[in-house]
Amino acid sequence: MNHILDADVVILGAGCAGLSLAGRLAEAHTHLRIILVDPRAGYHDDRSWCFWRPEKHDLSDLVSARWSGWRFSDTAGTTALHRVPGLSYQYIRSIDFYNRAVEKIAAAPTIELRLGVRAGAISVAADGVRVETDQGPLLAGQVIDTRPQHRSAILYQSFVGVELHSTEPHGFNPSEVTLMGSMAADASGLRFVYALPLDDHRLILEWTRFGAAPIPRRQLVTELDGVLAAHSLGDAVPVRTEGGVLAMGLRPDDRPPLPGVVSAGNAGGALRAASGYGFLRIQRWAEACAGRLLAGAPAIGHPSEPWSRATLDRLFLQAVRRHPERTAEYFLALAQGVPAPSLLRFLSDGAHTLDYARIIGSLPKRPFIAEMTRRATYSPTPPAMVVPAPAQADTAQSIMVQANTEQADTDQADTEQSTTAALPLVGLR
Ligand SMILES: Cc1cc2nc3c(=O)[nH]c(=O)nc-3n(C[C@H](O)[C@H](O)[C@H](O)COP(=O)(O)OP(=O)(O)OC[C@H]3O[C@@H](n4cnc5c(N)ncnc54)[C@H](O)[C@@H]3O)c2cc1C
Question: Is 177 found in the same domain as 223?
Answer without folding.
Answer: yes
